[in-house]
Amino acid sequence: MENSNSYSPYSSSSVDSTKPLPSESSVNLSLSLTFPSTSSQRETSQDWPPIKPRLRDTLKSLRLRQRGYNTALFVKVYMEGVPIGRKLDLSTFSGYESLLENLSGMFDTSVICGTRDSKHHVLTYQDKDGDWMMVGDIPWDMFLETVRRLKITRPERC
Amino acid sequence: MDRRFPFKVLEHIFSFVDSNEDRNSVSLVCKSWFETERRTRKRVFVGNCYAVSPLKVARRFPKMRSLTLKGKPHFADYNLVPDGWGGYAWPWIEAMAARRPFLEEIRLKRMVVTDECLEKIAASFRDFKTLVLTSCEGFSTDGIAAIASTCRKLRDLELRECIVDDLGGDWLSYFPETSTSLVSLDFSCLDSEVKLSDLERLLSRSPNLKSLKLNRSVTLDVLESLLRRAPQLVELGTGSFSDELDPEEIAKLTKALSELKQLKSLSGLWDLLPEYIPLLYSLCPRLTSLNLSYATVQMPDLIDLLSRCSKLQKLWVMDLIEDKGLKTVALCCKELRELRVFPSGADLDETDVTLTEQGLVSVSEGCPKLESVLYFCVQFTNAALVSIAKNRPNFRCFRLCVMEPFAPDYRTQQPLDEGFKAIVERCKDLRRLSVSGLLTDKAFEYIGVHAKKLRMLSIAFAGDSDLMLHHLLSGCQSLKKLEIRDCPFGDTALLENAAKLETMRSLWMSSCFVSFGACKQLSQKMPRLNVEVIDEHPPKTRPDSSPVERIYIYRTVAGPRLDTPEFVWTIHKSPEVGVSRLSIR
After folding, report:
1. A-chain residues near B240 (CB < 8 A)
2. Residue B334 has pLDDT above 90, yes or no
3. Per the domain annotation, does A66 fall within a domain?
């Protein structure tokens, strides 16, 4: 998509050249003015432009979609052996950790990524090629592009 | 026999005085008016929860039925206030629970509300009817369950854009099994799924329900079943609008939507797919409010929809609507009063929509009742602002966010001073203004002089010097709230205009150039102001000349607050500095 209207907000062309040159004491200030201040307390926080967090999150997932990524952020989740599945909106999670946490709560058991063993429920997913893969190997954003459905495997019995 | 009106007569007269501003004026006339007024006030509004103590408020208004409180400053909405700053609802809930058990309505904005608070509300107010929490945080769905199960007369439960510890959708099943008195239910900010059967049953036994706002996890395939049980709805916030439905499901849903004969307001519509827009056609002619901020629909489809909404008064939409779409709005939505256009490219690197200043100009030309605008745009021109001001002198709220900081008029390369001058000169009723783009001190001189009714002003990345702040604080007669970020001032202006700050509710300044010394001086000079220095990373030593990250100043009769976190400094934490006069509680 041709992007003819891209603006670098911090390019010097946007600064009024008729303003007096900053004096030394205000140099630090003008440096801080060229970048919006960020609250370091939150992860990927941004405070400019001034829009509320919920809208900002919605826009993130919109952009994923605009770039042609997986449009269905709602995926079906099955627990192996249980015929009725659940539905989950993956765009509400920030990463694998929050996904696992939520699944563990939803299915009332501990769900992990990793190799199958006799104790834990391991999370797997079906990708856009139809193959069943282990969750957690690829970056989260890439995972969102390719995941089609989730399956929680039962602990392996010897 | 003294010449005062008998209490009963005054009481009767005051019962016609609704607005709290008027009631405040009435209270100042004389002692007996003060007494009569306070005994008759039912709706109490406290704009800053730290301006007055909960105990005082509880004692002053014995007939209080409704309490509205605001906590954190407005810029907290944009992550500018660190977590843990304050705004705790508990002291208020506790005070009211002990003294005003007949309280029926509590509305809180930007406050920290815990499950404990919610449980206390549920346990203490027998006739509790209305809970509206806007941009609040600190509670979980357990607290909501407590309200649902215990408040038998509950009419309104609205969680607007709150951050909730979502432990699952069980809370919905806690409403009493018998018929409920619910009139409005808003859980749109929750993430987890509620059980369809719980929701269906609740709707079936809530005959008075007029407003229902679902959360995103309510999928489209179940919407029909819900609407069938609540055809009397006046306001509907749908859940996700993107699942694939088969033709039979589509037909059923279309029918269910067309049965909503009373529906005036529509929102939700997450991920609205263009092929589902025709389903909404039957609602359009009656709609007065449409919130498409989560509907990522492109311009041609928006035009399709909006051209049918001739009664629309309030429209919230993304900039995907583009200038062309706004032109349609200007042609078709002649009743429009409020327009908000949000940026779809929040990171400034995705600006490939054709939304320019022209869109807003069109709407200002075509919509004679337009009085409130929030407009995000990449750049603007003075000419456009002048046109807009000429077209629409009836603006009461004008918020323009030119997203590129310091962006001048892109045609003339001039600052946007003249444009905003036109706005404040012509729009004599302007109550709220947000400015942006390249602005010199001159712009603020104009605002100071002309914006006589302005109560709230927001500024970012603007001005040249202290003069800017000085113009505002020495002018703007009605100014109550001023919030400023990333502007290059201003010890001098602050100290010179200290008295003005007592006439205002609050002043917020972040990433400006206020020194620690000035904060100390201001605190010493003005004991009836709370001056808070909010530094997430305070230096080990703080010389007077060091700049502070954020400063929040507000008038108060409650004295220093006792719940400040470590990163908030007030003069009371530096006893060696001393205060000129101790404030009285």
Report:
1. 74, 89
2. yes
3. yes
